[in-house]
Amino acid sequence: MTTTPDDRPVRLFLVDDQELVRAGFRMVLDAQTDMTVVGEAGDGLAALDAIEATRPDVVLMDIRMPRLDGVETTRRLQERGDAARVLVLTTFDLDEYAFAALKAGASGFLLKDAGPAELLAAIRAVHAGDAAMAPSTTRRMLERFVPDLPDAAAETAAAAQRRAALARLAPLTQREREVLEAVGRGLTNHEIAAELFLAEATVKTHIGRVLSKLGLRDRVHMVITAYETGLVGRPE
């Protein structure tokens, strides 16, 4: 997990095809003593080169843009191993594009009409390695946008994929699996501690180990992994 020294402002990069939107964000963000905007771009293609040059900590990424949208831009950033965390900007809650961006590696999403306080809190959460959305929201997105499998052939293929996914959990201890499953159900650290009779500090330690062992970026991707591996199933 990449960290930034406490005395260095969080480096931000803005990607949005509307110049006025970028200007509004920049005005709010540059007014913060712990943040600085290091660059901006009007589409994904322009952003890829500029992000590599400016090395921001957090990218505020619009979803629907010309030339290269936010989903594909996020995917390419993750594929090349870019350390920047992505906070997706979307117009609608539970947007299928926002879900696709989470799957591609984004660390959370934020509605474009969010107020300044919510925007700043989301940026700080993502930079700290947390998720800028509740795990329960990620869970609802998974339930809504992952399709049911309609036939036997698809079910067979899905079973093979599930077995391969389960193999990913081999490095985890039983307790770590239990914590991952609880995170996948959208429980908070406090709720997990109560359910598993653990101290909250112990829960945080287990979460850190799960993230490290499975190579996950944050809590959002713990939820996705719990769902993909079958630790958490889709409700009937």
TrEMBL record:
Residues 11-127 form the Response regulatory domain. InterPro entries: CheY-like_superfamily (IPR011006), NreC/VraR/RcsB-like_REC (IPR058245), Sig_transdc_resp-reg_C-effctor (IPR016032), Sig_transdc_resp-reg_receiver (IPR001789), Tscrpt_reg_LuxR_C (IPR000792), WalR-like (IPR039420). One of its GO terms (molecular function) is DNA binding. The keyword Membrane does not apply. Transmembrane segments: none annotated. It holds the Pfam family GerE. CDD domains: LuxR_C_like, REC_NarL-like. One of its GO terms (biological process) is regulation of DNA-templated transcription. Residues 165-230 form the HTH luxR-type domain. PROSITE patterns: HTH_LUXR_1, HTH_LUXR_2, RESPONSE_REGULATORY. This is DNA-binding response regulator.
